Amino acid sequence: MPPILEAKDCVMRFSGLTAVKNFSCSLEPGHIYGLIGTNGAGKTTVINMLSGVLRPTSGEIIFDGKNITGVKPHKIAHLGIVRTYQNLRLFNKMTVLENVIIGAQIEKPYHLVTGILQLPRYHEKEKELRDKAMEKLEIMGVSEYANAQAGSLPYGLQRRLEIARILAANPRLLLLDEPAAGMNPQESMDLVEVIRRIQKDNHLTILLIEHDMKVIMSLCEYIYVMATGEVIAEGLPEEIRSNPHVVAAYLGRAE
Ligand SMILES: Nc1ncnc2c1ncn2[C@@H]1O[C@H](COP(=O)(O)OP(=O)(O)O)[C@@H](O)[C@H]1O
Ligand SMILES: [Mg+2]
Fold it and tell me: What stretches in the chain show pLDDT beneath 70?
């Protein structure tokens, strides 16, 4: 099957620092990929390039056969690539439900003016958005908190809410930046189940950055390993686990 996403020799240079020296990947639709590596390896920078937050210094990103290098984040989101952030970016003062409704509007923005004039179409649209948002909250297991302030949720649930929010944008490719960070082992394993389910139900492609090797090894079908801005290994989970370079550079270290 042709890849849904390809990165070719992507380089990201900041003044005086090359955060990503050379990143290439090829993601086939409907699979879960892992991206691992020590802190500062360049993983988040890769997601920033793939989601349009950063324009690569050089290299190319192809999504669904189209060159999307340097395309703005909201346009990339419209095409179906959505991401979560390592540091959560929720609207803490808004309700859980409102956070997801906002997520859904990446997909089909409707004119604010329609809302102001309170036209019938606005009510219809609002109901549709609410129903859809509730459905995503249910999938992620946070619907009972729909009317709570997002900032009041325990951290692990805020991470789940962030995934509900990006699901509302009808994604095709999810880029998840450390979704299990701050979760206890049970919460992490529950998250694994949810990620597996949303992947299947929506036939999603997922690129997952995660430090929790149990999460990575239980979910990922193929893994990229980065160290100091470069992919030092890639392969099937069992190949990665037994690769001496990876063990030396990453797995052997106490986290
Ligand atoms: N916007 C930026 N400006 C300057 N340096 C950055 C920026 N973003 C990341 N870096 C640097 O790039 C390197 C890789 O960072 P990052 O991609 O966040 O690593 P990881 O996610 O693997 O921990 C780090 O040295 C980091 O300090
Ligand atoms: Mg990071």
Answer: 106-122, 251-255
**160-195 per-position pLDDT tens digit:** 999 999 999 899 999 999 999 989 999 999 999 999
User: Which 8-state DSSP code applies to residue 145?
Assistant: G
Are residue 216 and residue 235 in the same domain, yes or no? yes
Ligand 1 center from residue 179 Cα (angstroms): 18
Does the C-beta of 45 come closer than 6 Å to ligand 1? yes
Q: Which of 89, 49, 109 is nearest to 73 (CA)?
A: 49
Q: Please indicate, yes or no, if residue 88 is contained in any of the structural domains.
A: no
Domain boundary among 112, 138, 169: 169
Find the domain containing 16 and state its range. Answer: 1-80+171-255
Distance CA 205, CA 194 (A): 14
Query: 250 C-alpha to center of ligand 2: Å?
Result: 15
The predicted model scores a pTM of 0.91
CA–centroid distance, residue 133 to ligand 1 (Å)? 33
